Amino acid sequence: MRAHYLQHVPFEGLGSIESWLDSNGYELTHTRFFESVHFPDPEAIDLLVVMGGPMSVNDEDQFPWLVLEKRFVREVIESGKSVLGICLGAQMIAHAMGAKVFPNPVKEIGWFPVRGVASVDASVFRFPPSEIVFHWHGETFDLPPGAVRLAKSEGCENQAFQLGKRVIGLQFHLETTPKSAREIVSHCRHELVPSRYVQTEEEILSASPSRYQSINDLMGGVLSFLQRGDG
Fold this sequence. Notes:
This protein is of the alpha/beta class. Helices cover 30% and strands 26% of the residues. It has one domain: 3-Layer(aba) Sandwich (Rossmann fold), CATH 3.40.50.
């Protein structure tokens, strides 16, 4: 099996996703937009992972490759392959599939709970009733046509969605490790302006090892779900 990931900035990599892919036998390739813009044939991959980044999907004038990226993401989805989008990646999926992406009324940065949205549909991924996860976003999105909401929070209504059986978008970061948390804080600490849903650097970096383990395990659950759908 082959997984391909789209990386927008050097400091937002795969985190715990990489070890899961390795342990499940995936060959891993990438497109790093800060190095080059090159996409594989959608038919040659089994799983596409679209990572986060500080830019907006609407910043096409500043980052012209966004146009090409959206086209590629749509092609992969329409080819029936499994796709996971994280933060900017979720917004990318939503926008590529016809939904609007726009500023959220509040920023969410730090460790805050999301609530799973119950569903009787067995083909829909089920999040726990409540899980404290890592956030770093200022924008949100409408659900693309046909998508099902999977999770929400007090600060943001659309935290996760599923499109069909093989596409999931997460506004939050389940792949975060202590190292990746330090990386994003180091590069984006200017965004840590105190407000209701923005924690301090100290609060963010004081998360316990069990907190990281919990979200990484949940990330593994999402990836396993997508893997089954691909099978």
